[in-house]
């Protein structure tokens, strides 16, 4: 990678995160390293009649404290999170739009589901009061591209701009595709990641009917237990993770602080089943292999994998197989963790916030643990950094995400 021209190398210069474990990157990261569970009983609605009653909510949050109150009232909770995390990342990057060509700055912030709060609230108004009661802001608030559009308006960015949807692979796809836009010369700067807010009655009812969510309601803090023998489903999370990406040349020219390099990315499909991953891990394995190949990095050089690790019976076993497929004997010595044990599963925002985690791992030399891993599944027999954070020299990190529809994504970050 070092032999590529600086204009073809892509680096991370800004980070933003909003989650129940912290409304900014520093507090969020400190909570992860402390092994703090961000999961509790749901309070955003009464979950009494639902099979799953736990979630990782963003608590003590008022969007009007972080953005224009009028715009906050007009927009959905998922947009609030993404917009405000993007503001954090942009500020962190030190970019000054008065010094930038606005046609060379783009935004791709994806969401797996979009404005679920708006959808439910406006349907209730329709059923209770008729069509005249439905807000004229309904469509802009619920569609999945509006966060990208709003942040572009906020900073005056006229470059590539859209929303991206690929279920739980959305955030990683948004970052990877943004990397490619910079590499091919479409932009100098991209603000990219994912955002989601689906802790709502309809979303819970839908996922519960699939029996996809944990029903460990008596002990919420331990309900997400990736790679554990007793795992029984994922736990819903909400929030956002956003990166600022730039060409190395652009970042160096303005004297930016550089966190890490994005060296490779790949997207594949299982073409197997609409919700169940390929039981041999072939699709995810191919995504990891291609991401490494694009990076010019061998499996022996990877120090840490931030796993998708959803705490579902199928995913954790099949992801373990995929890692073994790609890494061979090296799989047993590479550090792996699922931070979803603390964050819950942020669906379309998972790849965004887990990319923030990946970059912080490189920056700090600390690996966040997989908590609640006291009785490992014998079929999940790798080093999942159980229960306690670990200090290590980390130069190369891979982050994996899978989505309903059989979609896979892998992205590689490297110290620079």
From TrEMBL:
PANTHER family: 3-OXOACYL-[ACYL-CARRIER-PROTEIN] SYNTHASE (PTHR11712:SF352), POLYKETIDE SYNTHASE-RELATED (PTHR11712). One of its GO terms (molecular function) is 3-oxoacyl-[acyl-carrier-protein] synthase activity. This is 3-oxoacyl-[acyl-carrier-protein] synthase 2. Keywords: Acyltransferase, Cell inner membrane, Cell membrane, Fatty acid biosynthesis, Fatty acid metabolism, Lipid biosynthesis, Lipid metabolism, Membrane, Nodulation, Transferase, Transmembrane, Transmembrane helix. GO terms for cellular component: plasma membrane. Pathway: Lipid metabolism; fatty acid biosynthesis. Its EC number is 2.3.1.179. It comes from Rariglobus hedericola. It catalyses: a fatty acyl-[ACP] + malonyl-[ACP] + H(+) = a 3-oxoacyl-[ACP] + holo-[ACP] + CO2; (9Z)-hexadecenoyl-[ACP] + malonyl-[ACP] + H(+) = 3-oxo-(11Z)-octadecenoyl-[ACP] + holo-[ACP] + CO2. The active site is at residue 168. It holds the Pfam family ketoacyl-synt. GO terms for biological process: fatty acid biosynthetic process. InterPro entries: 3-oxoacyl-ACP_synth-2, Beta-ketoacyl_synthase, Ketoacyl_synth_AS, Ketoacyl_synth_C, Ketoacyl_synth_N, PKS_Beta-ketoAc_synthase_dom, Thiolase-like.
